[in-house]
Structures
1.
Amino acid sequence: MTITQIMTFVRVAETLSFTQAAHDLHMTQPAVSHAIASIENELDTLLLLRDRKKGVLLTEVGEQVLVQFRTILHSMEKVQQQVAAVKGLDVGTICVGAFPSASAYFLPPIIQKIKQNYPNLVFDLHEGSANDVKEWVYNRKIEVGIVLLPAPELDVIPLCENDMVLLLPANHPLQQQAHITIQHLHKEDMILCKGGHETAIIEAFDNENCELNITFTTHNVSALINMVRQGLGIGIVSNLALSMHPHQLDVREVTPRITSQIGIAIPSLPNASLAVQLLIKTAEELFIESAISIPS
C-alpha cells in the first residue's frame, strides 16, 4: 500500500464520509473508494462498514489500523522535517490540540514566537474538551496536546497550575466574608462549568467533609457567568477560563485551594518530531522559564 492510500483511509475514517474525504484530498470519490478497497484487499479484512442509515462506520479492526496509520503519517512528517532541517529549511506541520481556554491562552504566544523564526511551519489546530484532547493524543489523531494532568500512558511536560475561583452573585451573604473556605460552601447552590476540573472540585469538597450541591452544570463560561449574574448560584470555574471572559462579578479565592495542573502531552517524547520538539521548547521558555502566571 502507498502513503497516499494510507492518507486516504485516515481522512475517510476521521470524516466518516467518502465525499468529504475526496473533497479534502482533492480526489474523485471513485479514487477514494478504490484506495480503501486496495487497502482492504491487501490486508484481507474489512476496515469500513457502509450503512445506508448510519453512513460510514469503522470496524473494530479499522479502529486499530487507524491508530497505526496515524503513527505512520506522523513518522513520515518527522522524516520530512529532519530532511528539511539538514537542508536549512523550516517546513512541516504541527498537529496540536487544546481545550478552549488553553487554546486561547497558550497557543497564540507559542505560535507567534515560532513563526518569527520558522514562518513556513503550518499549525493544524484542534479544539475540544480536556478529555477529548487526551484521547486525540493517545489515538495519534494529533501529535501534541495541551491538557489537564494527569494524562496516563502519555509523556507529559507540566506548564503551570490553574486555580479554581468563585463567582458570587450580587448581594450574596458570602461577600461579607474576608476569606471564603470550602466549609462556607457547604450545601450552597453551585454552578459548574464542564471542562475536566470536576474531579478536583469533588475531591476538595470530600476532603473537607462538605456537601457539593451542584444545581446547574454548563458547557461554557459565558453561560455560567450569566447564570451567576441572574442569582442562580455561586459559580466555580478555572481562573484561566474566566480570564478570557470580561465581566463585573465579584471573583473570590477559596481556601483550601482547588487547583489543577496544565501540561503538554505527547505519545512519546523521544520520538517527537522536530516541530513538536520546537513547540515544547517554546512553551517551556514562555510559561516555565519566565514564570508567567495565569492572570487573576
Note: The chain has a mean pLDDT of 90.
2.
Amino acid sequence: MKKSQHQKISACLIVKNEEELLPNCLSSIKNTVDEIIIVDTGSTDSTVTIAKDFGAKVYHHPWNDSFSEARNHCLKYASGNWIFQIDADEELEQADIMKLQKAINNVKCNAIAVAIHSAIQDNYHTFYNIRIFRRGKGFYQGIIHEQLIIDGDRLSADIRLYHHGYNLDPHKMKEKWQKTTRLLQKQLEQNKYDSFAWFNLIRNYRTQELFNDGIIAGEKALTLFTPDPGTIHPEMGITMHHYAMIVYETANCYLHLASASRAKELCYKALSKLEAAGNTPENIDILFTLACAYLKEGSYQKAVQYFHRFLSLREWHLNNVGTNTFMTDTLGYDYAAHNGIGYCLGNLGQWGIAIDHLEKAIALNPRYRNAYYNLALCFENTGDINNAVNTLLRTVSEDIADDAVWLHLGELYIQQNTYEKALPYFEKYLKNHPADKNVLLKIVWCYEKLGHLEAALIGYRSVEALKEPA
C-alpha cells in the first residue's frame, strides 16, 4: 500500500461473505490508500482470509440490523486524514487515482462526491455520492440506505467507482431485496415519518418490478406527508426534496403500469409545490419523468421539450454537485434523454436530427441497447439498410444483442436478399422462441431462396406440427 508523506487515506469497508467480489475491490485501491480497515459482520466464507492477504486490518463486529451502526463502528479504527468509503462490490477506476490524490489536497472542503457507475444487466446507471471525507467530519445515520452527515463544505470530482451489486445471480438478488425490504419496513416501524425510508422502500419495490406495491407505498407516503409550511408533524423530518424523490419513484411505478396520466399529475403537482417553496431550479428527476410520460402517451413534441429542459438543467446540477447536497437520480441520464429525443423525432419523421441524437446517446453510453435499436429503425425508414444492419451489428460486438436484435437483423438481411446471412439470426431468435411459427416460416423461405429444398420441406413439416388441432 502507498505510503503518503502528506494526506493519509483510510479505506473503510463493512463486509459479510464477500469472497467473490472483494479481491477486485481491494486490488483497485491497494496502491491508492494508506490503510484498509475492514469490519466483518459474520462472514462464513473466505472473506476474512482474502482481506488479510491484502494487508487489511480486520475487526469483527456483530450485525445489529443497521448499516450506519456498522459503518460508524468502522470509522473508529481509521487513522488517516481522509476516509474513503467503498463497498466490496465496487471498484475504483485506476485512471482516476491521480484525481483522487488531487482532490484530497483541497484544503477548502471536508467531503468529495464521486461518480458511481452502477451496472444493471446490460446497462449502467450513474449517480453522484459522497464517498471521501475528512476523518471526524462525517458520520452515518439510518439503518439502511444510510445517509452520510457532513460537517463543512464539499466538492465534486470526476472520480469513478464501478458498482456490481445489482448484477448478482437471481437468487442472490432476491435475498438482497428481501433483506432491504425487511430493514426498510423495520426503519418505518421505528419512525413512520421517515421520508427517506419511504422513498427507498418505493424504490426497492420499483427495482424489483413490484410496481403495484410501489404505488401503494407511494400513495400512502404522499398522503402521510404534506410538504406545506406550518403543517409538518414535529417527528416527520420531511423536506421538499424528499417529497420530490417520493413523487419521482411513485410516478415511475405508474409509468411502468402504463398510467402516464397519473404520473404526469404527480409530477406537475410536485413542480408547483417546489416552485412555491422557492426550490430552484426545477427538479431534473421530475422533468425527466414528465418527458418519459409524454413519450409513452405519444405526445412527442412535449416529450422533446421536457428532455431538452432536462439536459439544460442537468448541466447546472453537474456544475453545482459540490454545493447541492440533494440526491439526484437522473444526473447520469444524458444518454437516455438523447435516446428519448431521437425516438420522438424519429416518430415525427425528422430522421436526420433523430439520428444525430441517437448517435450521441450511443457515444455517451455504448452499452445502451435501446439507442442502437432506435437508430437502426431511423436508418431503415430512410432506406439506408446498410447502416441499419451495421448499427445492430454493433450490439453484437458490444455483447448486448437480444432477441429483438436477432429478429430485426434477419429481417434486414431479407430486405437485402442476403438469405444466407439472415438464417443464423432467425435461428438464434427461434432457439429462445421455438413456437414462433412466423419466424419458422421466414427460415423456411430463406432455405427455399437458397435452393435448400429438403431443409425447407423439413421446416414446413415443423410448421404443420405447431398448428393447433382443430
Note: Confidence is low (pLDDT under 50) at residues 230-237.
3.
Amino acid sequence: MNSNHILKGNGFAYASLTIVNAIASGKGAAFAIDLKAKARVTLSRGESKIEVFSRENEDPCLTKICVERCLSALADKGYNTENLNAKVEITSDIPVAQGLSSSSAVANAVILAVLDAFQARNEFSAEEILKLNVDASIKSRVSITGALDDASASLLGGICLCDNLSKKILLRKKFPKKYKAVVFVSKERCYTKDVNVQKIKILKNPISFIFENLLRNFSKEVLFDTMLINGLLYSTALGYDPRPIYDSILNHAITAGLSGTGPAFYAIIPEEISAEFLAEMKKFVNGYTPILVDIIR
C-alpha cells in the first residue's frame, strides 16, 4: 500500500436473541435474527487516527478497539498496517441498549470490514474473528463475559451454545423451521455495564441447570422451554414486568423470553400466525413496539 493508495472494505453481522444469558454462570446461548449492523471502513496513510461515524452517536470506544486489534492481527500475518488513518461508518437497524447484541454485531461488522479492506477475510478463521470481538468487548466494557454466545450467533447464524469464560463454542444447531420472532422493543434503554452483576449471580445454579440440560438434551421442546425459564428468571432479577412473556404465550406464541439484560422481550411464533399475532399484541404491550423479524437459521 503506497502513500496515496486508499483501501475500502465492508462488513455486516446479525443481531441475536438470548436463549440463556451467560452473566449468571459464564455459559450462554443465543440465536441470530435478521436485523443487521453494517460497517464501511476507509484506510489511508496518515497519523494513525481512527474516526467513527454512527447515526446512533454511541460511544466509539468499541469500534476503535476493534480496528486497533484487527490491524495488529493483520500485522502479525505480515500485512503493512503502520501509520494508517481509519474512517469507520456504521449503519444499523438493530435497536441499541435493548439486549439484542447490537455491540457484538457492530464489532463483527467492523472487524470484517477491516479484513475486507485488506482482502484478508480468507486468512482469518471464525475463531480468530470471534476472539478479536470478545477481547474488544471486554476491554471496552460493553460486555461482562465477552459475549461469545452473542458474537458467535451474530457472525455464524443459527443457534450457538458457548462457554464464554473459556471462550469455546460448545454446540451449534440450526433453528427449527417455520418460525418467526417478534421483538418487543422498549422505550427505555439498558446498558450491560450498568447491571447489578451480584444480584444476577444469585441465579447461577438454576441457569447452569437449564444450560446443561439444553446442551445435553437438545431438542425443539427443550429449546423453547429454556427460553421461557431464562426469561422469567432474569426478568425477576432485573426488575422487569414479565407480562410481555405471559401475554405472548396466551396469544398463541410457542415460547417467549427476555433478550440479554433487556429491556427487550421476544416471542417465537409459527410463521402462519405472524400477522394476527402482531396485530393482537399491539393491544397488550404498552411501552413496547413489536417488530416481526426473520430468524437466521
Note: The mean pLDDT is 93.
